[in-house]
Amino acid sequence: MAPRLANPADIPSIMAVERVPGHDAYINLWTAEQHAAALAGPDHAYLIAEDAGGEPAGFAILSDRRDPHGNLCLKRIAMAAPGRGLGAPFLRAVTAWAFRHSPAHRLWLYVVATNERARHVYRAQGFAEEGTLREARLNADGTRTALVLMSLLRAEWDAQAPS
């Protein structure tokens, strides 16, 4: 699954994926204006996963592309139909894109601590858990959730990436 770069016409489908029931427990929802501003700027790259019919099946947002220390953030990744086995291949493709199209030394992310399925997928692809940020995420209902910081170093990706 080779991701493609998003364009402004993809914003409605990105927002639809963000709003799949249940996603709000794990990802933040942005407005069309927030997505348009990020997509137009130099610090973000939006990648789109497409299904066999060419329809958007998910998206990822990479941020901090100009970080002087080489730390690239996987800000968001979400699939239109979770649980169908497309998320892991898309994550693999996004990770490959990140290291092949940037000088990043480290790809990092935050994942909601209770999202065991996502944590398992990240660990299976070589991401290491670096620590927990207690009560770091404010949920829509006013409660707070811990976030787990995870990362993958370029050398680790190089060691496992197909040649």
TrEMBL record:
Question: Which Gene3D superfamilies does the entry mention?
Answer: 3.40.630.30
Q: A Pfam family name for this chain?
A: Acetyltransf_1
Sorted alphabetically, the keyword list is:
Transferase
InterPro entries named in the record: Acyl_CoA_acyltransferase, GNAT_dom
Every N-acetyltransferase domain range:
1-155
Decide whether keyword Iron is in the record.
no
Q: Name one GO molecular function term.
A: acyltransferase activity, transferring groups other than amino-acyl groups
- Its name, as the record gives it, is N-acetyltransferase
Source organism of this protein record: Muricoccus nepalensis
